[in-house]
Amino acid sequence: MRDRKSSRHPLKSLPVVLIACFIALAFSSYFLPDKKPGAYDHIQLEYSLLPPLTRVQFLFLEENPESDVERIIPYDSLFLDSDGIEHYFSKRKKVYSNYHRQQTAQQHSRLFLLGTDRFGRDLFARVAYGSRVSLSIGFLAMMVSLLVGVPLGAIAGYLGGLADRVIMWLASVMWSVPSIMLVMSFTLVFGKSLVQVFVAVGITMWVDVARTVRGKVLTLRNKEYILAAQICGLSSFRILAVHIFPNILGPILILAASHFSTAVLLESGISFLGLGVQPPTPSWGNIIRDHYPYLLMGKPWVVILPAICIVGLILSLISLANRLRDHFDVSSY
């Protein structure tokens, strides 16, 4: 028999700490610059495929009143005079002759913590923003699956009869089609924006929720306290909401954690295929899709880092689901 204290606090565990780290990473994307090197969508080809922990220097020319142009000039060394800017970067010399004294030249430096991608964009910024996309899609898709699956499963299990047969037939039809094919079909028909992606992922996962809820409701609807509530004239909605739902909350939480990981994996898969979130918005899947050839070209970090994020988040969510299952499993005590 296991010690009950060991499973009283499933939230006090390493998976929760890792999930919290990914959430913090997602929130850090709100504090990253939206311009200059360091922005997730700022292209600077001179910085292409820099390794992690690389610090660069650049000159930022403020807006030119005559041409409304802003320039970011990378350099290793430079010289400014009245005619232009002569600067050196990676042993290459370039001269910009349209420098005006009305412009203010500011020297800056930037540390690329995780390096850059093939377009010179900050990889940390893109991974951080990608975590925001993946977590948002995972959470919203999980909520869609619960909002669809819990009511349908409860209705099928409690009412039975024709409602049960129709809902279970629909669930069997959905079950027979691979989830990735359903998501791909949905995004091809309705578009590839963020909303379509999480709705498409969510509607493919409600079947597990409905089947689980139906089975739990079937075991509870003939209990004495449910029969007493029916004799007292309580409505079916109140019986389900007040007397049945609290008793099946544990399995629903387990499914929520499991479906969160499934949604993240599905989103990464369809983004890798080019059917998910579209550029320039980054997600872990499309970062890997854009750079997987570099695994064999001596620059593997652009693929390995987002892949580690996918694996780490999914393993954390699966481990959390297992801990929740053990916590709510009374037979283990």
Q: Any low-confidence stretches, pLDDT <50, length ≥5?
A: 1-7
What spatial form do the alpha-carbon principal axes imply?
elongated
What order do the helices and strands follow?
HEEEEEEHHHHHHHHHH
Q: Care to count the β-strands? A: 6
Overall helicity:
40-55%
Q: Class of the largest domain in CATH?
A: Mainly Alpha
Subcellular location: Cell membrane
Keywords: Cell membrane, Membrane, Peptide transport, Protein transport, Transmembrane, Transmembrane helix, Transport
Domain ABC transmembrane type-1: 131-321
Family: Belongs to the binding-protein-dependent transport system permease family.
Summary?
With 333 residues, this protein is mainly alpha-helical. 55% of the residues lie in helices and 11% in strands. The protein has helices at residues 14-28, 123-159, 161-176, 179-190, 194-203, 206-220, 224-231, 236-244, 249-272, 284-291, 301-328, and strands at residues 54-61, 71-75, 77-80, 85-89, 92-96, 105-112.
Write the layout of secondary structure elements.
Elements: H1 14-28, E1 54-61, E2 71-75, E3 77-80, E4 85-89, E5 92-96, E6 105-112, H2 123-159, H3 161-176, H4 179-190, H5 194-203, H6 206-220, H7 224-231, H8 236-244, H9 249-272, H10 284-291, H11 301-328
Helix pairs in contact: 1-2, 1-11, 2-3, 2-5, 2-6, 2-9, 3-6, 4-5, 7-8, 9-10, 9-11, 10-11
